[in-house]
Amino acid sequence: xxxxxxxEVVVCDLADLAVEEGRTYxxxxxxVALFRMRDGSVHAVGAACPHRGGPIxxxxxxxPVVWCPLHAFGFDLATGACVNGxxxxxxxxxRVDDGRVVVTIPA
Length: 107
Hints:
- This protein is an all-beta fold.
- Helix content is about 0%, strand content about 45%.
- The chain is globular.
């Protein structure tokens, strides 16, 4: 990966994320909701529901789906695809490196 293709950003410590609870961060000018799964993996999706801008990080997480708290649209955290509609959340690659969460944002 070159810098022209993507930017890797250390966002937080894994310990900052409670299991199956979202938290919103600004990553390279993007509003990103991070979710930590039971297996220790992390997902990074858009922080605003494409329906009416609901705060995705405040939604109920029922692995592998997060439910928007405003109108109950569900989004697959692995793909960003809506499970009960035609909506799509942006999604970015996220990983844990030495206890820190790293998100990759395309340049």
